[in-house]
Design goal:
The chain starts with 7 loop residues before the first strand and ends with a helix. The chain is globular. It has a seven-stranded antiparallel beta sheet. A six-stranded antiparallel β-barrel has the order 1-2-5-4-3-6. By secondary structure, the chain is mainly beta. It contains four helices and 13 strands.
Length: about 200
Amino acid sequence: MFSGIVEEFATVVGIEKEQENVHFTLTCSFVEELKIDQSVAHNGVCLTVVRIFDGKYVVTAMKETLDRSNLGVLKVGDKVNVERSMKMNGRLDGHIVQGHVDQTAECVAKIDQQGSYTFRFKYALDPVMMKKGYLTVDKGSVTVNGVSLTVCNSQDDSFEVNIIPYTYDNTNFHQIEVGTKVNIEFDIIGKYIARLQSVE
């Protein structure tokens, strides 16, 4: 379980494909605090630490994860938003994030607001999944590349988020341009509400 409050970004320093799996080697400031089997969200995707060595760590993504997220397009040198799992005795500063990415979205607009940025993201519309809560609502929560954000100007297949300078500088939002693919996780509470409403 995560909160969507990104700690920092890690740098991809190695990528190794093994059959349908991909092993990512990354480095960040808290590598020495990690443990094998620990969960870490990478661009919002919960992955397990499988190896730690020389100030680096390795996580493995399987085909399902690669197909559903933007991890499959990562290259050596890319920055990935990372967050360790939430401590249950702490504050929930973002919202409840599972680290189970629902799908990807594409940045279709990036507007400089003279001090902050507005991003618009468009995703594939699936009416069946919408009925199951896979949608956004104005002032609701959404996770973009692991960042907990408030939804603005929600449409059936798109939404906007506003990014303050701190978030822009300290996550990989500063690398997102029109055409960039991002990971999105819809609000789990909305999914549960939709599911309850469908039960007769």
